[in-house]
Amino acid sequence: MPKASDKSKKCPLCGKPEIAEHAPFCSRGCKDRDLLKWLGEGYRIPGPPADERDPSGRVDSAESDG
Asked: Model confidence over 26-55: pLDDT tens digits?
């Protein structure tokens, strides 16, 4: 069974001690929950809506021809 790598480090999801094998998480379960949150767009940064006409995803308003 893996040992905690450092008593001061805690899992960012549940607060249990970090396990080196799953760092920075305590278990595969917490690691997978974090991944699912990323994939489900649970972590978002507020900002203006993306322009659907611009497939590059740029948000700048200045247009350049050259």
From this structure: 999 999 999 999 999 888 888 887 776 766
Which of these, 40, 37, 38, 60, lies nearest to 50 by C-alpha position? 60
- Predicted TM-score (pTM) above 0.85: no
- Residues paired with 19 in a beta bridge: 4
Query: Taking 60 as the threshold, does the pLDDT of residue 64 lie above it?
Result: no
Where does 1-66 show beta strands of DSSP type E? none
Residues 10 and 7: their CA atoms lie apart, in Å, by 8
Report H helices in 10-66: 28-39
**Helix runs in the chain, H state only:** 28-39
Task: Select from 3, 2, 48, 22 the least CA-distant residue to 12.
Answer: 22
- Token couple for 37: 């949150």
